[in-house]
Design goal:
By secondary structure, this protein is mostly helical. The chain contains 8 helices and no strands.
Length: 229
Amino acid sequence: MEFLNTADFWIGLVKIIWINIILSGDNAVVIALAARSLPPEQQKKAIMFGSGAAVVLRIVLTVVAAKLLELSFLQVIGGCLLLWIGYQLLTGGEEGEGESKGHGSMVTAIRTILIADLVMSLDNVIAVAATAQGNMVLLILGLAISIPLVIFGSTLMIKLMDRFPVIITLGAALIGWVGGETIVNDNLLHGYTMAHPWLHYAAAAAGAVLVVGLGKLMQARSGGKQVAA
């Protein structure tokens, strides 16, 4: 435990916490979107379990992230998953009805949080791991401290979404943006993307437009069906 008395340890810890503050914004949006349709008590549980499990998952992922990023098509698949998640969260396609559906919805919300965090963290964990420089105590401690940051951010986002519904659309667009980025960052496309830097932003923008466009189209169709009924 002598490393606790070194300046390098505390400087590294501050760096990891700061990195997690910066990178937790999109995760907080995903958690808020996934939990917003649940009753208040289930919202708290989904945020707590989802945030805690996501951080634990990120710790495990850190060990193998560098190797995973070398696999072709992995980020393409992950990016497509994010596009689907963004679409589902925008359209509210997985909202349940009744008491039994309520429990299922909380499980679905936690599952959605974990899948989205897994995909969105592939690049992020490399930055955290590089800062920790192999010190697992520093890594785990830094990520554990980030849990209340994500929980607070998610709770705040839910309140803002209730007051300003446009944030829901912006949140779905953010997930679509990250999804597009993830696809074009795949190892298979790395050389082409490096030769054409504009493709990074074009793919991200296309992902955001696709999620919001399809989501709004389905919302309009559903609204039309309800009026006709």
